[in-house]
Design goal:
By secondary structure, the chain is of the alpha/beta class. The protein is built from 23 helices and 10 strands. The strands form 2 sheets. It has a 6-stranded mixed beta sheet. It has a 4-stranded antiparallel beta sheet with strand order 2-1-4-5, with no helix packed on it.
Length: 626
């Protein structure tokens, strides 16, 4: 009927109605629908046939009435007309099934195409995109707007075509019987169309309000029902306040639902009144015409049946433009994500990195975080956010870094918080691209390498390693899907975690929970190290891998790391300086610059920044033996 906007967009109907169809969006939408064009034509054909078949019963009823009023009515003719009416009803049922089959094939296929394209594109976007994007908004875009785009093809397109065909064929049939009664029926329409159109717009506003309130509830549940959110609520004792906020939003949804139901009933009551008044007018004026011999009784009965079919499509078509524009908005929002730039992408002619030796060189590297408009989407950063994104890059955080790490060396990066250590490490696997200079592996610029092959030879263990809500085995095989059970167990023994896993009731089939919360911090670290060993990279980056562990876990993780780093080029980012005293070289970074470089003993003897940090963080405690 064209009363409700498609979910997920929250656009103002007045703005949509006043806008023009974007041909570029239309052509791109057709590009996704093109593989289903034969099905679409079949779908439209069933709509046309169904609309034509719907005319048969009213026409046959009139013929039967005329036959019964004839001087010598034929029983066989009445039975034949009734049989044709039954056959038309059966054919209409078959067409309805075919129409539903076509629409489901097209709709589900289009959802599949759009979702797959979106998922593939989003997971390849730079990491900077995810640092600014609301996860809930992105998921909503991939669910609600994709469904809205699908509705544009199978819902809006079918509705508009169906309403046009029904309206044209019905008016033609009515005019065939009596143009006077047809004009009379149309004169009644404005009395109900204008109020109904206003009700339709009000329903759109209520529907948009419901979507916003539902989005608020979903966001609150998503953030509060994960482990971290639930723990925060409990630790701060905010259960009652959270319930009050949720209850307020739920009450808004309830009240909007009541208003929507009331307005919807008013709308359909209006349509019913229009039909009743139209039928009464046709019977009244048409009856006079029958008395004066200007119209047959059968024609009058057919007209009364046909007139009720006019009002619904006419009312729907008054909002057709809003429906079409609203449907295209969903496509537009999907394309907005598909068009988001990949600021980190493979260069033309990029090659695979094969069997690297592991020599890493930072060749006069400088770096500033890129401008937000090169990777982000404002509407995904905050609800209703459409402000222009900044077009200037951030302040330079790394300045002329010149550093070479030879194959098999262990180099530690140390320095105050915010010095740029993690940023420097993120340039090796190309989570970001350098602003100036180059990062090279075995003498080749990482930008000249295919990202997939580059990252296949780099292993990273972060301070808070991420585990998926899957089994331990599935998390381990993320490092190498074809890893055998024996290989997993060997890696876990090397990572000092096999005995812990074997003691669990389900062993390697134990589900670790969201973000691995069923495991302790040290256990998660060791599972992550085992995953790294299964991947078997040439270059390892450890980012604060032991900074938040207790002494017992630290010793276990450190033992696992000693095995993991053996024979591999290693970059260790550490705050806990006691863990890196035996590094081949320690590089001290301050304010984005290398200020010192050397072994632990040399740097202590220099008495500069490293010595100050070491005395502050380690003090007079005896140095640990690696």
């Amino acid at each position: 009927m064209g009363m409700h906007p498609y979910p997920g967009h929250g656009q103002d109907p007045k703005v949509i109605a006043g806008s023009r169809v974007n041909r570029e969006v239309l052509m791109r939408a057709w590009g996704f629908a093109r593989p289903y064009r034969i099905m679409i034509w079949g779908f439209l054909a069933t709509i046309v046939l169904a609309a034509l078949l719907a005319l048969v019963p009213p026409l046959l009823i009139g013929s039967i009435v005329n036959e019964l009023q004839s001087p010598s009515p034929s029983t066989h003719r009445v039975i034949l007309l009734a049989s044709i009416s039954v056959a038309a009803a059966l054919a209409d049922g078959v067409l309805a099934i075919a129409q539903r089959w076509w629409s489901s094939r097209i709709g589900e296929g289009l959802i599949y195409e759009l979702r797959t394209a979106l998922f593939d594109h989003v997971q390849r976007l730079p990491i900077a995109f995810f640092t600014r994007t609301q996860t809930g908004a992105l998921i909503s875009r991939m669910n609600n707007d994709v469904i809205g785009a699908q509705s544009a093809v199978t819902g809006t397109l079918g509705s508009v075509v169906s309403n046009v065909i029904v309206l044209v064929t019905t008016l033609a049939a009515m005019a065939f019987f009596s143009w006077k009664l047809t004009v009379l029926a149309l004169c009644v329409l404005p009395i109900f169309i204008i109020p109904s159109k206003r009700v339709g717009k009000r329903l759109q506003q209520i529907s948009r309000e419901q979507m916003n309130l539902n989005a608020g509830m979903n966001t609150q549940m998503t953030e509060r029902f994960n482990v971290s959110g639930a723990m925060l609520v409990k630790l701060f004792g905010r259960h009652d306040e959270e319930t009050q906020v949720f209850a307020g939003r739920a009450a808004g949804v309830r009240d909007a639902g009541i208003r929507s139901a009331t307005y919807g009933r008013v709308f359909f009551v209006g349509l019913g009144l229009a039909g009743a008044v139209g039928v009464a007018a046709v019977y009244g004026v048409g009856g006079v015409m029958v008395v004066h011999g200007e119209l047959s009784t059968g024609a009058l009965v057919s007209m009364a049946a046909l007139v009720q079919r006019v009002y619904q499509p006419l009312t729907a078509l008054t909002n057709a433009r809003v429906d079409v524009m609203t449907a295209l908005v969903s496509f537009d929002r999907v394309f907005e994500v598909l068009d988001s730039p990949r600021s980190v992408s493979d260069r033309p002619g990029a090659v695979e990195l094969i069997a690297p030796k592991g020599r890493v060189q930072f060749d006069h590297v400088s770096f500033a975080y890129p401008a937000p408009d090169t990777y982000s989407i404002s509407s995904l950063e905050a609800p209703g956010g459409n402000a222009a994104l900044a077009s200037t890059a951030g302040v330079e955080v790394l300045h002329d870094i010149d550093l070479v790490i030879e194959p098999g060396q262990l180099v530690a990066l140390v320095g105050p918080s915010g010095a740029g250590k993690t940023t420097l490490g993120s340039l090796v696997p190309r989570l970001y691209d350098v602003t100036a200079g180059a990062v090279r592996i075995d003498g080749r610029d990482v930008r000249d390498l295919l990202q997939e092959s580059l990252r296949a030879h780099i292993g990273v263990v972060a301070q808070d390693p991420h585990l998926f809500h899957e089994t331990i085995a599935e998390n381990l095989r993320y490092g190498r899907p074809q890893a055998t059970q024996a290989e997993m167990e060997e890696a876990c023994r090397a990572a000092q975690i096999h005995d812990v896993i074997a003691a669990l009731p389900d062993g390697y089939n134990t589900v670790v929970g969201e973000r691995g919360y069923r495991l302790s911090g040290g256990e998660k670290q060791r599972v992550a190290i085992a995953r790294l060993l299964i991947k078997n990279p040439s270059i390892v980056i450890l980012d604060e891998a032991t900074s938040h562990l207790d002494a017992e876990n630290e010793s276990l993780v450190q033992a696992a790391l000693d095995h993991a780093l053996h024979g591999r080029t290693s970059i260790v980012i550490a705050h806990r300086l006691s863990t890196i005293t035996s590094a081949d070289r320690i590089v001290v970074i301050d304010d984005g610059r290398i200020v010192e470089s050397g072994t632990h003993e040399v740097l202590l003897a220099n008495g500069a920044l490293y010595a100050d940090l070491y005395r502050t963080l380690v003090g007079d405690r005896p140095e640990p033996v690696s």
